[in-house]
Amino acid sequence: MTNVNSDAKITVVSGTAMPVRGNDIDTDRIIPARYLKETTFARMGEYPFFDERFDAEGKLKPHPFNDPKYKGAAILLVNKNFGCGSSREHAPQALLRFGIRAIVGESFAAIFAGNCLMLGIPTVTAPGGEIDKLMRLVENDPRIGFRLDVQARRLFSGGEIAIAVDIPESARKALVEGYWDSTAVLQANLDKVKKVAASLPYMSGFKA
Amino acid sequence: MSASSGRRLYDKIWESHTVDILPTGQTQLFIGLHLIHEITTAPAFDMLREKGLKVAFLERTFATVDHIVPTDMRSRPFLDEQAEELTQALEKNVRQFGVEFFGLDSDRQGIVHVIGPQLGLTQPGMTLACGDSHTSTHGAFGALAFGIGTSQVRDVLATQTLAMDKLKVRRINVNGTLPTGVYAKDVILTIIRRLGVSGGKGFAYEYGGPVLDRMGMEERMTICNMSIEGGALAGYVNPDSTTFEFLQGRPFVPKGAEFDRAVAYWKSIASDSDARYDDLVEIDGSEIEPTVTWGINPGQAVGISEKLPRPDEFSDPEGAKRAYEHMGWQPGAPILGTPIDVAFIGSCTNSRLSDLRAAAKIVRGRRVNPTVRALVVPGSTEIKALAEREGLNRIFTDAGFEWRSAGCSMCLGMNPDKLKGREVCASSSNRNFIGRQGSPGGRTILMSPAMVAAAALNGKIVDVREYA
Ligand code: SF4
Predict the structure, then answer these.
(1) How far apart are CA B276 and CA B320, in angstroms?
(2) Residues 6+ apart with CB under 8 A from A80
(3) Which one of A137, A188, B207, B321 is least enclosed by Cβ atoms within 10 Å?
């Protein structure tokens, strides 16, 4: 069977949280296109929400990512349709390299959530009312510690309160069993891949 | 052919491309065509190198350059050092791994979603992936086409497969007849406005109905292109005689008896007439007006004769308020007459020959308003040549438009074509996100190429039907 890197198993994410309010936050906002000109992801951690955090002179603007009270946050709280637009993996790369390890929101755009999963970042959802409560909680007390239990689909805040969160079953399995690092899993089937390829009409002069 | 009925194109392609069900429950799906460009792929090739892997199916992998290329001065090295470096990285990668490459000196170069269909690489019944969200464009041919991220590009390079969850299928019928002056762009903006920018979550969109049946392939591509703006990961149109006629004779399309066999296969993969859908939406095409966006996402759109909506008309009034804040406009004002600074005809949504023809028809014999910077950027080097053969370039340049070489240009801020400051741009592209066109304060109004042309002449948003 397939070898799975056991370090890759992501069952729990712990840390403080940071809210970024607003629906339909697109990946152009998360990382402006000019940073896609770099040939590696190495510096992406410097750029998340760049144009919302810095003005034309490079002076800081008010933004949660600039706010010292959220420094070191591992869990990002967001609203609806987060990460819509471009498929740029630079967006989750920027968040990950900034220190974000999990995202809790009302909903996520499909490609963005897929890209997060490929990097081992759980994107879990909760109803709008719950998200709003969490955001207010964190805005009032940013030191509250959270524990996202991916395995059990629960988010614990401050040790005691827990809410149920949702994550597609395939994503949950990929994270907790370590299959999110997918190349090896896919590669193990290369013989079957070749068989399917050969069976496709357009791969064989439309004789199949 | 097949004994089972009631199946959709989506199901048929999904089944024939299924390699395995993975331990996660996801499906491992074979990808029939992998298109590559300079952005989003350099780290993928690095990861391949790191793991000592090769490209598994070189014959199904093709590359070009589009996003970062300057559209005026294409001589090398590029003035922008980063652009030069990224282009060189792609050139090195395709050389080292042996990928067929349509580079800057190739007459096949162009925006990746324009050249796939143009070369006949994109065909019905295929799965297709590209590290770009507008890969949905290729669905116009009856293919399942997915935009993916860099790590997935790595997986497709290494295995020619992706791990995917199956989507639901929403059928969208566009009925009736489109009025004069109303184009595919107006149809898709209307659909997104109606269903919302996240309304397509979990769905593939199957577009059909009399309006789609009568559309040419270029118009169908405009529709499918923006599926992702409606939150749908994929969008497609069932293949028909329009599709087959478009494909016949193109470089990568089989010829002779093989073409006939291909057509038979292509016909067989269309949705069955008794197929059932997870959702059904009916749109009356005869009611669609020239449509433009007023806000900061493609769903924030209005018909040209409408007034700008009040924030409380939206399920997300805060989002609407933010849009007004950025655009600097007032609810209740008309969109008609809004002054513009820049006019951009281009992008994978609307840079094909029929788009340029529609715009040229409006522009012929007229002059761009002196307050407007206007540019036309053909989607591919071939389209540029074809348009020049017809004299379209002269019509544009005589009117005061700049006529450029193929690339993504002002669709996104990665090359020298950018908005400045708070400029307002009438744009035939697909995204009006804040900062999208290269200036954090820039403002984008999405519309059809004909509407952009009319706006360029007048220096403000006008109703293109006045030119019809
Ligand atoms: S034209 Fe625009 S949307 Fe299309 S591929 Fe280029 S940047 Fe992306």
Answers:
(1) 36
(2) A23, A24, A105, A106, A107, A128, B198, B316
(3) B321
Residues A200 and A144 in one domain: no
Specify which residues B234 forms β-bridges with.
B204
Per residue in B403-443, pLDDT (tens digit) is 999 999 999 999 999 999 999 999 999 999 999 999 999 99
Chain A stretch 90-119, residues whose beta carbon is closer than 8 A to a beta carbon of chain B:
90, 92, 107, 109-111, 114-115, 118-119
Does A51 contact B440 at a Cβ distance shorter than 8 Å? yes
Residue B88, domain extent: 9-164
| Structural domain includes residue B246 | no
> What's the CA-to-centroid distance between B64 and ligand 1, angstroms?
13
**Residue B234 Cα distances to B112, B128, B204, angstroms:** 17, 10, 5
Contact at CB, A193 and B56, closer than 8 angstroms? yes
Cβ contact A89–B165 (<8 Å): no
With a 6 A CB cut-off, is B408 part of the ligand 1 pocket? yes
Least CB–CB distance from B43: residue in A32, A40, A170 = A40
Going by CA atoms, what residue is nearest to atom 1 of ligand 1? B347
Residue owning the nearest CA to atom 2 of ligand 1: B411
User: The tokens 């067989």 sit on which residue?
Assistant: B268
CATH of residue B196: 3.40.1060.10
Helical segments of B99-149, H only? 112-119
d(CA B146, ligand 1 centre) in Å: 14
A187 to B159: CB separation less than 8 angstroms, yes or no? yes
Any A CB within 8 A of B319 CB: yes
Same domain, B68 and B172: no
Residues A195 and A126 grouped into a single domain: no
- Find out whether B165 and A170 touch, Cβ atoms under 8 Å: yes
- Could you tell me if the CB of B347 is within 6 A of ligand 1? yes
In angstroms, rounded to a whole number, what is the distance separating the alpha carbons of residues B261 and B292? 43
Q: Are B205 and B230 in contact (CB under 8 A)?
A: yes
Residue B46 lies in a domain: yes
**Residue B325 touches chain A, beta carbons under 8 Å:** no
Ligand 1 close to Cβ of residue B395 (< 6 A): no
User: How far are the Cα atoms of A198, B119, B127, B386 from residue B18, in angstroms, in the given order?
Assistant: 13, 26, 11, 39
**Which distant-in-sequence residues (6+ apart) come within 8 Å of A88 by Cβ?**
A27, A31, A33, A36, B39, B40, B149
Nearest to B37 by CA among A96, A28, A88, A42: A88
Residue A80 lies in domain:
3-168
Cis peptide before B77 (omega within 30 of 0): yes
Same domain for A184 and A108? no
SS3 B427: strand
- B152 with B182, same domain: the answer is no
CA-closest candidate to residue B397, choices B378, B428, B374, B416: B374
**Tens-place pLDDT, residues A124-158:** 999 999 999 999 999 999 999 999 999 999 999 88
In chain A, which among 56-75 make CB contacts under 8 A with chain B? 56
Over residues B346-397, the pLDDT tens digits come to 999 999 999 999 999 999 999 999 999 999 999 999 999 999 999 999 999 9
Q: Are both A161 and A204 inside the same structural domain?
A: no
Give the ipTM of the model, two decimals please. 0.94
User: Bridge partners of B236?
Assistant: B206
Show residues of chain A in contact with B43, CB under 8 Å. Answer: 39-41
Q: Is residue A173 in some structural domain?
A: no
Domain count within chain A: 2
